[in-house]
Design a protein that fits this description.
This protein is an alpha/beta fold. The protein contains four helices and eight strands, in the order βαβαββαβαβββ.
């Protein structure tokens, strides 16, 4: 059996900052943003691929323990987005222009398709994001 990642839900305190980071800095396509802003849907999303989205869940939809326990251990270390080398370079350029710090990298790391080149950044909600490309 082969499974496909459908979506990841990120708890975000500032939805607009998260949208700016994922759409303007990383170049992902926004989904349901205007519907969210009009109050017709509970959260917006950004598209990673034709099969995968990130949901940006605002604080009012978090469980009580998520909303009030600032000291809890995160349940996710990071997630990784892979892209073509030129797209990766374009994203790195956008990161530099947006004055987003690169936490780590570039470095060679193992992933789903073998070894690739990665950097790590942190989104406005504190989630670590690995951005990588694989050589052909």
């Amino acid at each position: 059996m082969e499974l496909v990642l459908d979506h990841i839900v990120l708890n975000v305190r500032d939805v607009e900052a998260a949208l700016t980071f994922y759409t303007r800095v990383l170049g992902l396509t926004p989904e349901r943003v205007e519907e969210y802003r009009r109050g017709h849907v509970p959260f917006p999303s950004v598209r990673l691929s034709k099969n995968t989205i990130l949901d940006l869940l605002p604080e009012q939809w978090w469980s009580a323990s998520e909303a009030h326990d600032e000291q809890r251990t995160p349940n996710m270390n990071h997630f990784c987005m892979a892209m073509e080398k030129q797209e990766w370079q374009d994203v790195c350029d956008k990161i530099a222009l947006a004055d987003v710090a690169v936490d780590k990298g570039p470095m060679n790391l193992f992933g789903a398709r073998g070894d690739g080149v990665s950097i790590y950044v942190t989104d406005p909600a504190g989630n670590r994001v690995e951005l990588r490309y694989y050589e052909p």
